[in-house]
Design a protein that fits this description.
The complex is a heterodimer of chains A (244) and B (68). With 244 residues, chain A is α/β, with parallel strands linked by helices. Helix content of chain A is 39%, strand content 18%. With 68 residues, chain B is of the alpha+beta class. Classes of the chains: A alpha/beta (244), B alpha+beta (68).
């Protein structure tokens, strides 16, 4: 018998602190597996965000740098410019990237920095206890919009992939969902393509992963996965938005 | 014919693997818990495993190793 699937060597032995059913863990291992496949071991620096993934530096078996809230693309820019041959990635959630870090991500993309940004969109602020995020869906309940997000008062959700793909700098912009094995395998392919764009020094690459947050959505794992599949995908369509 | 090995101490009992097992041979135990108090994953019928690795692909905590 041969081993067909085992834990990636690019992950440390530290147990993830994520809640049961949270798909951050899946995103982590996809990034780790891709880094292993492209042979980046020993030559990769990751930038951790503020949010649920704040301890990402404990989980990836590579050099990691923690950034201030939302500033991961700016920190990654600095690292990449000093060490252009090192693979640099930023791993950010939606509160970090689409709210406080909106300026940093848009300008890093506009400058066409040759970094890869992995964006976890779970439509809520997870770490702080389930507040409304810029990506919260219309009608979705959160602790700061207890009757559901009302576009009249709270505005509409921001579609980051669509926004980033209008810029000239990015060469790869894609969105996948971590809701079933087929989509997880597609997400891995997208992450790999994104890193290949960086290796080939093409330009900025961005992958958005629709993710489940059963705890703050107040759902079971099964309900949360269905929510990603049905409700989130109707607002955030999957696919490749830009590839050059 | 496949075989899975579960690192039970790291399992959080979320059930994502159980949902996507095409042969429905996985279940969360209703008796056995680990050190964190989670009801852990168990294999109901070992002979039914086809080694597709769907369970391992979906496991957020990488507790499953698959052999085929």
């Amino acid at each position: 018998m041969t081993v067909v699937y085992k834990k990636s060597g690019m992950l440390t032995d530290a147990p993830f602190h994520y809640c049961p059913g949270c798909t951050h863990g899946i995103a982590h291992k996809l990034v780790a597996e891709v880094l292993e496949e492209i042979g980046a071991e020993g030559n990769v620096v990751g930038v951790a965000p503020v949010g649920c993934a704040v301890f990402a530096y404990n989980y990836f078996n590579c050099d990691m740098q923690e950034a201030s809230h939302g500033r991961a693309p700016a920190v990654a820019t600095g690292i990449k410019r000093v060490r252009p041959d090192t693979v640099v990635f930023a791993y950010q959630g939606d509160g970090d990237l689409a709210s406080i870090g909106m300026a940093e991500i848009v300008h890093a993309a506009a400058r066409g920095e040759k970094i890869t940004v992995i964006f976890i969109n779970n439509a809520i602020y997870g770490m702080t206890g389930g507040q409304m995020a810029p990506t919260t869906l219309e009608g979705q309940k959160a602790t700061t919009c207890i009757y559901g997000r009302n576009p009249e008062i709270n505005g509409n959700p921001i579609r980051m992939c669509e926004l980033i793909s209008t810029l000239t700098g990015p060469t790869y912009v894609a969105r996948a969902a971590l809701c079933d094995p087929a989509n997880v395998r597609k997400a891995k392919k997208m992450i790999k393509t994104a890193f290949e764009h960086q290796l080939n020094k093409k330009g900025f690459s961005f992958v958005e992963l629709l993710s489940a947050c059963p705890t703050n959505w107040g759902m079971t794992t099964e309900q949360a996965v269905d929510y990603v599949k049905n409700d989130m995908q109707s607002i955030y369509p999957l696919g490749v938005f830009k590839e050059e | 014919m496949g075989k899975i090995t579960i690192e039970k101490e790291r399992c959080k009992g979320c059930g994502l693997c159980v949902m996507y097992c095409p042969k429905k041979i996985l279940a969360l135990s209703d008796k056995e818990t680990n050190g964190n108090g989670y009801f852990v994953l168990t294999v109901v019928d070992e002979s039914g495993c086809i080694g597709c690795a769907n369970c391992a692909v979906m496991c957020p905590d990488s507790v499953i190793t698959v052999e085929r």
